[in-house]
Amino acid sequence: NYNITMEQLADFAREFQIKQNTVVVDITGYSFAGSIRERHMSETSTDFTTSLSDAENGKFKLTLTDTQTGNLKPGDYVYDVVQTDDSGIKTRLLQGIATVEAGITR
After folding, report:
1. Of all helices (H) and strands (E), which one includes residue 91?
2. How far is CA 39 from the centre of its chain?
3. Whole-prediction pTM value?
4. How far apart are CA 7 and CA 9, in angstroms?
5. Contacts with 88 (C-beta within 8 Å, 6 or more apart), sequence order
6. Closest residue by Cα to residue 20 from 95, 83, 97
7. Sheet holding 75-84, edge to edge
8. So what's the pLDDT on residue 104?
9. Separation between Cα atoms, residue 79 and residue 36, nearest integer Å
10. Cα 36 to Cα 97: distance, rounded to the nearest angstrom
């Protein structure tokens, strides 16, 4: 598990690097998808925008806009990120608690 914290009403961005046995994995051709939900079975979700930031060096990025974080009430949520490799194999890379801290300035 890897827990994350974000500020309500602010942009969120986090970069990750994929390694296997301490060796960087080239993720060219891979895709990623991730969502935040109040609970595992909640019908509504907020989806991260995902992008390859440096594929050859195993880096990808998750982002949410200030509007997206503004639509989340302060508190704890669950999230995960799934990788699809260039062969179509899906792997859950990350999961944990996403804490949204209250924003004041609108």
Report:
1. strand 90-101
2. 16
3. 0.91
4. 6
5. none
6. 83
7. 4-7, 90-101, 75-84, 31-37, 46-47
8. 83
9. 4
10. 9
Cα Rg, the chain, nearest whole Å: 14
**SS3 sequence of 44-84:** CCEECEEEEEEHHHCEEEEEECHHHHHCCCCEEEEEEEEEE
First-to-final CA distance of the chain: 32
Question: Are 27 and 18 contacting, i.e. CB atoms less than 8 angstroms apart?
Answer: yes
Amino acid at 52: L
Q: Which segments of the chain have a pLDDT < 50?
A: none
The whole-angstrom separation of Cα 28 and Cα 96 is 26
